[in-house]
Amino acid sequence: MLRGALLNIFIVNTPYHLLITTTLHTKNDLVIIIDDFNVEKSTFCSDLIEKKMKENKIIIIKGLRSFRGKPLNLFRYIREIKKRAKNINANFDGNLFLFNDGNPFNQIFISNLRNSRDVILIEEGIGLYRDVKKRHHFLYDVIGKSIFGLSFQNTRRIGGHKNTSIIVCNLPECLSDIQLEKEIFLINEFCSIDKNFLSSLNKTIPKEKFDIFISQPLVEDGVLPENLYIKKLDSIFKKVIRKNHNFYIKPHPRESKNKYTYFEKKYGVKIVEDKDIPIEIFLSNQDSSFVYTVYSSAFYNIAKYLKLDNFLLYDLFAIDPKLPEPMLKSSQVNVIKSLSELPIKKEN
Length: 348
Fold this sequence. Notes:
Number of domains: 2
Structural class: alpha/beta
Number of helices: 10
CATH class of the largest domain: Alpha Beta
Order of helices and strands: EHEHEHEHEHEEHEHEHEHEHEE
Largest sheet: 7 strands, parallel
CATH architecture of the largest domain: 3-Layer(aba) Sandwich
Number of strands: 13
Protein backbone atom coordinates (compact mmCIF):
# COMPACT_ATOMS: atom_id res chain seq x y z
CA MET A 1 0.00 0.00 0.00
CA LEU A 2 1.39 3.43 -0.95
CA ARG A 3 1.51 5.99 1.86
CA GLY A 4 0.77 9.67 1.34
CA ALA A 5 -1.09 11.45 -1.42
CA LEU A 6 0.32 11.20 -4.94
CA LEU A 7 0.38 14.31 -7.12
CA ASN A 8 0.67 12.69 -10.57
CA ILE A 9 1.41 9.28 -12.05
CA PHE A 10 3.57 8.63 -15.11
CA ILE A 11 3.43 5.35 -17.06
CA VAL A 12 6.46 4.76 -19.26
CA ASN A 13 7.16 1.96 -21.75
CA THR A 14 10.55 2.99 -23.19
CA PRO A 15 13.77 4.75 -22.12
CA TYR A 16 12.70 7.76 -24.21
CA HIS A 17 9.45 7.99 -22.24
CA LEU A 18 11.53 7.97 -19.06
CA LEU A 19 13.65 10.84 -20.39
CA ILE A 20 10.57 12.97 -21.21
CA THR A 21 9.12 12.17 -17.78
CA THR A 22 12.14 13.86 -16.15
CA THR A 23 11.00 17.16 -17.72
CA LEU A 24 7.53 16.97 -16.17
CA HIS A 25 7.62 15.11 -12.86
CA THR A 26 7.94 16.36 -9.28
CA LYS A 27 9.32 14.51 -6.27
CA ASN A 28 5.89 13.36 -5.05
CA ASP A 29 4.96 11.78 -8.38
CA LEU A 30 4.81 8.04 -8.95
CA VAL A 31 6.58 6.54 -11.98
CA ILE A 32 5.33 3.17 -13.24
CA ILE A 33 7.67 1.45 -15.70
CA ILE A 34 6.10 -1.20 -17.94
CA ASP A 35 9.34 -3.07 -18.46
CA ASP A 36 9.70 -4.53 -21.94
CA PHE A 37 13.27 -3.24 -22.22
CA ASN A 38 14.99 -4.62 -19.07
CA VAL A 39 15.29 -1.34 -17.20
CA GLU A 40 17.43 -2.75 -14.39
CA LYS A 41 20.22 -3.62 -16.85
CA SER A 42 20.03 -0.30 -18.69
CA THR A 43 23.00 1.98 -17.97
CA PHE A 44 21.16 4.96 -19.43
CA CYS A 45 18.01 4.41 -17.36
CA SER A 46 20.01 3.83 -14.16
CA ASP A 47 21.84 7.12 -14.75
CA LEU A 48 18.58 8.92 -15.46
CA ILE A 49 16.88 7.61 -12.33
CA GLU A 50 19.93 8.37 -10.18
CA LYS A 51 20.19 11.97 -11.42
CA LYS A 52 16.52 12.92 -11.71
CA MET A 53 14.27 10.50 -9.82
CA LYS A 54 16.01 9.73 -6.54
CA GLU A 55 13.06 11.01 -4.52
CA ASN A 56 10.36 9.38 -6.62
CA LYS A 57 8.54 6.17 -5.90
CA ILE A 58 9.17 3.87 -8.88
CA ILE A 59 7.21 0.70 -9.57
CA ILE A 60 8.44 -1.75 -12.20
CA ILE A 61 5.81 -3.90 -13.92
CA LYS A 62 6.88 -6.83 -16.09
CA GLY A 63 6.11 -6.23 -19.77
CA LEU A 64 4.02 -8.53 -21.94
CA ARG A 65 7.13 -10.09 -23.50
CA SER A 66 7.90 -11.72 -20.14
CA PHE A 67 4.83 -13.93 -20.56
CA ARG A 68 5.33 -15.37 -24.03
CA GLY A 69 4.28 -19.00 -23.89
CA LYS A 70 3.15 -18.60 -20.25
CA PRO A 71 -0.61 -17.85 -20.39
CA LEU A 72 -1.39 -18.98 -16.84
CA ASN A 73 1.35 -16.74 -15.45
CA LEU A 74 -0.05 -13.86 -17.49
CA PHE A 75 -3.59 -14.28 -16.11
CA ARG A 76 -2.23 -14.32 -12.54
CA TYR A 77 -0.10 -11.26 -13.18
CA ILE A 78 -3.01 -9.30 -14.68
CA ARG A 79 -5.00 -9.91 -11.48
CA GLU A 80 -2.01 -8.67 -9.50
CA ILE A 81 -1.70 -5.50 -11.60
CA LYS A 82 -5.42 -4.71 -11.23
CA LYS A 83 -5.18 -5.10 -7.45
CA ARG A 84 -2.10 -2.89 -7.38
CA ALA A 85 -3.80 -0.22 -9.50
CA LYS A 86 -6.81 -0.11 -7.17
CA ASN A 87 -4.53 0.29 -4.14
CA ILE A 88 -2.72 3.17 -5.85
CA ASN A 89 -6.05 4.78 -6.75
CA ALA A 90 -6.95 5.09 -3.05
CA ASN A 91 -4.11 7.62 -2.58
CA PHE A 92 -4.37 9.42 -5.89
CA ASP A 93 -6.21 12.50 -7.12
CA GLY A 94 -3.84 13.94 -9.73
CA ASN A 95 -3.19 13.57 -13.46
CA LEU A 96 -2.18 10.38 -15.23
CA PHE A 97 0.52 10.92 -17.86
CA LEU A 98 1.38 8.26 -20.43
CA PHE A 99 2.75 7.84 -23.94
CA ASN A 100 0.70 4.93 -25.23
CA ASP A 101 -2.95 4.34 -24.35
CA GLY A 102 -3.18 1.23 -26.54
CA ASN A 103 -0.82 -0.97 -24.50
CA PRO A 104 -3.00 -3.50 -22.58
CA PHE A 105 -1.06 -3.12 -19.32
CA ASN A 106 -1.26 0.68 -19.60
CA GLN A 107 -5.01 0.33 -20.12
CA ILE A 108 -5.36 -1.59 -16.84
CA PHE A 109 -4.05 1.48 -15.01
CA ILE A 110 -6.13 3.89 -17.11
CA SER A 111 -9.31 1.96 -16.21
CA ASN A 112 -8.53 1.42 -12.53
CA LEU A 113 -7.08 4.83 -11.63
CA ARG A 114 -10.56 6.30 -11.49
CA ASN A 115 -9.51 9.31 -9.42
CA SER A 116 -7.45 10.75 -12.31
CA ARG A 117 -8.31 14.36 -13.08
CA ASP A 118 -7.01 14.04 -16.63
CA VAL A 119 -5.45 11.24 -18.65
CA ILE A 120 -2.74 13.05 -20.61
CA LEU A 121 -1.20 11.35 -23.63
CA ILE A 122 2.18 12.69 -24.79
CA GLU A 123 3.21 11.95 -28.36
CA GLU A 124 5.82 9.21 -28.68
CA GLY A 125 6.14 9.22 -32.46
CA ILE A 126 4.35 8.30 -35.66
CA GLY A 127 2.01 5.89 -33.85
CA LEU A 128 -0.14 8.87 -32.91
CA TYR A 129 -0.75 9.76 -36.56
CA ARG A 130 -1.58 6.48 -38.29
CA ASP A 131 -4.06 3.67 -37.84
CA VAL A 132 -2.88 0.17 -37.07
CA LYS A 133 -5.00 -2.16 -39.17
CA LYS A 134 -5.18 -5.63 -37.66
CA ARG A 135 -6.13 -8.46 -40.02
CA HIS A 136 -8.70 -9.87 -37.61
CA HIS A 137 -9.78 -6.75 -35.73
CA PHE A 138 -12.97 -8.23 -34.22
CA LEU A 139 -11.20 -11.41 -33.12
CA TYR A 140 -8.40 -9.35 -31.57
CA ASP A 141 -11.03 -7.35 -29.67
CA VAL A 142 -12.71 -10.48 -28.30
CA ILE A 143 -9.41 -12.10 -27.30
CA GLY A 144 -8.20 -8.85 -25.71
CA LYS A 145 -11.31 -8.55 -23.54
CA SER A 146 -11.14 -12.22 -22.52
CA ILE A 147 -7.52 -11.83 -21.39
CA PHE A 148 -7.35 -8.28 -20.01
CA GLY A 149 -10.98 -7.73 -19.02
CA LEU A 150 -14.02 -5.91 -20.39
CA SER A 151 -12.30 -2.53 -20.02
CA PHE A 152 -9.79 -3.48 -22.76
CA GLN A 153 -10.11 -1.21 -25.82
CA ASN A 154 -8.81 -2.40 -29.17
CA THR A 155 -7.81 1.08 -30.35
CA ARG A 156 -6.75 1.58 -33.96
CA ARG A 157 -4.50 4.50 -33.11
CA ILE A 158 -2.63 5.80 -30.06
CA GLY A 159 -4.73 8.55 -28.48
CA GLY A 160 -7.99 6.77 -29.21
CA HIS A 161 -8.77 5.46 -25.71
CA LYS A 162 -12.10 6.82 -24.47
CA ASN A 163 -10.58 7.89 -21.12
CA THR A 164 -7.76 9.91 -22.68
CA SER A 165 -8.74 13.55 -22.19
CA ILE A 166 -5.66 15.50 -23.36
CA ILE A 167 -3.22 14.89 -26.22
CA VAL A 168 0.15 16.67 -26.33
CA CYS A 169 1.69 16.53 -29.81
CA ASN A 170 3.67 18.21 -32.58
CA LEU A 171 1.19 17.93 -35.45
CA PRO A 172 -2.45 18.45 -34.43
CA GLU A 173 -3.36 18.80 -38.11
CA CYS A 174 -2.59 15.08 -38.53
CA LEU A 175 -4.91 13.87 -35.76
CA SER A 176 -8.06 11.88 -36.45
CA ASP A 177 -11.59 13.06 -35.66
CA ILE A 178 -11.65 10.83 -32.57
CA GLN A 179 -8.38 12.30 -31.30
CA LEU A 180 -9.55 15.85 -31.97
CA GLU A 181 -12.39 15.32 -29.52
CA LYS A 182 -9.71 15.55 -26.82
CA GLU A 183 -8.10 18.76 -25.60
CA ILE A 184 -4.94 19.40 -27.65
CA PHE A 185 -1.65 21.00 -26.55
CA LEU A 186 1.50 21.55 -28.60
CA ILE A 187 4.44 19.59 -27.23
CA ASN A 188 6.90 22.51 -27.31
CA GLU A 189 4.53 24.49 -25.09
CA PHE A 190 4.25 21.60 -22.67
CA CYS A 191 7.71 20.22 -22.05
CA SER A 192 11.33 20.71 -23.07
CA ILE A 193 14.56 18.88 -22.29
CA ASP A 194 17.30 20.81 -20.49
CA LYS A 195 20.35 20.78 -22.79
CA ASN A 196 22.71 21.08 -19.80
CA PHE A 197 21.13 17.96 -18.36
CA LEU A 198 21.53 16.18 -21.69
CA SER A 199 25.23 16.98 -21.67
CA SER A 200 25.55 15.29 -18.27
CA LEU A 201 24.25 12.07 -19.88
CA ASN A 202 26.71 12.24 -22.77
CA LYS A 203 29.48 10.21 -21.13
CA THR A 204 28.95 7.15 -23.29
CA ILE A 205 28.55 8.82 -26.69
CA PRO A 206 31.44 9.01 -29.16
CA LYS A 207 33.26 12.30 -29.60
CA GLU A 208 34.31 11.60 -33.21
CA LYS A 209 32.19 12.43 -36.25
CA PHE A 210 30.07 9.57 -37.53
CA ASP A 211 27.12 8.49 -39.67
CA ILE A 212 24.51 6.12 -38.28
CA PHE A 213 21.75 3.66 -39.12
CA ILE A 214 18.84 3.60 -36.64
CA SER A 215 17.34 0.14 -36.76
CA GLN A 216 13.97 -1.27 -35.75
CA PRO A 217 12.73 -4.72 -34.71
CA LEU A 218 11.46 -5.53 -38.21
CA VAL A 219 12.78 -9.09 -37.95
CA GLU A 220 11.58 -9.61 -34.38
CA ASP A 221 8.11 -8.27 -35.25
CA GLY A 222 7.83 -10.55 -38.30
CA VAL A 223 7.80 -7.70 -40.84
CA LEU A 224 10.81 -9.09 -42.75
CA PRO A 225 12.75 -12.38 -42.64
CA GLU A 226 16.27 -11.87 -41.31
CA ASN A 227 18.06 -13.00 -44.50
CA LEU A 228 16.14 -10.48 -46.65
CA TYR A 229 16.64 -7.69 -44.10
CA ILE A 230 20.41 -8.27 -43.99
CA LYS A 231 20.61 -8.50 -47.79
CA LYS A 232 18.79 -5.18 -48.21
CA LEU A 233 20.95 -3.48 -45.61
CA ASP A 234 24.11 -4.82 -47.24
CA SER A 235 23.16 -3.24 -50.58
CA ILE A 236 22.60 0.09 -48.81
CA PHE A 237 25.76 0.01 -46.70
CA LYS A 238 27.86 -0.68 -49.81
CA LYS A 239 26.76 2.71 -51.08
CA VAL A 240 26.92 4.88 -47.98
CA ILE A 241 29.71 3.62 -45.69
CA ARG A 242 32.97 5.45 -46.30
CA LYS A 243 36.42 4.06 -45.67
CA ASN A 244 38.18 5.64 -42.70
CA HIS A 245 34.92 7.14 -41.48
CA ASN A 246 32.98 5.98 -38.43
CA PHE A 247 29.62 4.34 -38.99
CA TYR A 248 27.31 3.14 -36.20
CA ILE A 249 24.27 0.92 -36.00
CA LYS A 250 21.86 1.82 -33.20
CA PRO A 251 19.69 -1.25 -32.40
CA HIS A 252 16.16 -0.80 -31.14
CA PRO A 253 15.73 -1.59 -27.39
CA ARG A 254 13.52 -4.60 -28.31
CA GLU A 255 15.92 -5.90 -30.93
CA SER A 256 18.66 -8.52 -30.90
CA LYS A 257 21.92 -6.94 -32.03
CA ASN A 258 23.53 -10.27 -32.94
CA LYS A 259 22.32 -10.03 -36.54
CA TYR A 260 24.60 -7.02 -37.09
CA THR A 261 27.83 -8.93 -36.39
CA TYR A 262 28.05 -9.54 -40.15
CA PHE A 263 28.42 -5.80 -40.78
CA GLU A 264 30.99 -5.40 -38.00
CA LYS A 265 33.18 -7.93 -39.77
CA LYS A 266 32.53 -6.76 -43.34
CA TYR A 267 32.58 -2.98 -42.97
CA GLY A 268 34.01 -2.35 -39.51
CA VAL A 269 30.79 -0.68 -38.33
CA LYS A 270 30.31 -0.15 -34.61
CA ILE A 271 27.25 -1.30 -32.69
CA VAL A 272 25.88 1.07 -30.04
CA GLU A 273 26.25 -1.03 -26.91
CA ASP A 274 23.70 0.84 -24.78
CA LYS A 275 20.60 0.18 -26.89
CA ASP A 276 18.48 2.17 -24.46
CA ILE A 277 20.12 5.55 -24.90
CA PRO A 278 17.73 7.73 -26.96
CA ILE A 279 19.16 8.50 -30.36
CA GLU A 280 18.52 12.21 -29.78
CA ILE A 281 21.15 12.09 -27.02
CA PHE A 282 23.55 9.88 -28.94
CA LEU A 283 23.58 12.44 -31.77
CA SER A 284 23.50 15.54 -29.58
CA ASN A 285 27.14 16.56 -30.26
CA GLN A 286 26.99 15.92 -34.02
CA ASP A 287 26.55 18.66 -36.62
CA SER A 288 27.02 16.90 -39.96
CA SER A 289 26.01 13.27 -39.50
CA PHE A 290 24.00 11.44 -42.14
CA VAL A 291 21.24 9.50 -40.40
CA TYR A 292 19.65 6.45 -42.05
CA THR A 293 16.56 4.58 -40.92
CA VAL A 294 13.77 2.52 -42.44
CA TYR A 295 11.13 4.68 -40.72
CA SER A 296 12.01 5.19 -37.04
CA SER A 297 9.92 7.85 -35.30
CA ALA A 298 13.17 9.46 -34.21
CA PHE A 299 13.71 10.89 -37.70
CA TYR A 300 11.26 13.72 -36.96
CA ASN A 301 13.03 14.91 -33.80
CA ILE A 302 16.43 14.58 -35.45
CA ALA A 303 15.35 16.77 -38.36
CA LYS A 304 13.40 19.27 -36.27
CA TYR A 305 15.74 19.76 -33.31
CA LEU A 306 19.19 18.57 -34.40
CA LYS A 307 18.94 19.69 -38.05
CA LEU A 308 20.73 16.58 -39.29
CA ASP A 309 20.07 15.01 -42.69
CA ASN A 310 17.72 12.03 -42.50
CA PHE A 311 17.39 9.34 -45.16
CA LEU A 312 14.20 7.29 -44.92
CA LEU A 313 14.68 3.90 -46.57
CA TYR A 314 11.26 2.25 -46.31
CA ASP A 315 10.72 2.16 -50.07
CA LEU A 316 13.91 0.12 -50.46
CA PHE A 317 12.37 -2.49 -48.15
CA ALA A 318 8.95 -2.39 -49.88
CA ILE A 319 7.31 -1.12 -46.68
CA ASP A 320 4.69 1.62 -46.50
CA PRO A 321 4.69 3.14 -42.99
CA LYS A 322 2.04 5.72 -44.00
CA LEU A 323 3.96 8.67 -42.59
CA PRO A 324 1.99 11.92 -42.34
CA GLU A 325 2.95 14.34 -45.11
CA PRO A 326 3.68 17.26 -42.72
CA MET A 327 6.35 15.13 -41.03
CA LEU A 328 8.18 14.78 -44.34
CA LYS A 329 8.29 18.47 -45.21
CA SER A 330 11.49 19.30 -43.34
CA SER A 331 14.40 20.07 -45.66
CA GLN A 332 16.45 17.59 -43.64
CA VAL A 333 14.16 14.64 -44.49
CA ASN A 334 14.93 12.68 -47.66
CA VAL A 335 12.68 9.80 -48.74
CA ILE A 336 14.86 7.43 -50.76
CA LYS A 337 13.06 5.68 -53.62
CA SER A 338 16.02 3.81 -55.14
CA LEU A 339 19.65 2.99 -54.37
CA SER A 340 20.77 5.61 -56.91
CA GLU A 341 19.28 8.35 -54.69
CA LEU A 342 21.49 7.50 -51.71
CA PRO A 343 24.14 10.11 -50.94
CA ILE A 344 27.62 9.41 -52.28
CA LYS A 345 30.08 10.99 -49.89
CA LYS A 346 33.73 11.58 -50.65
CA GLU A 347 36.31 9.48 -48.85
CA ASN A 348 38.06 11.12 -45.89
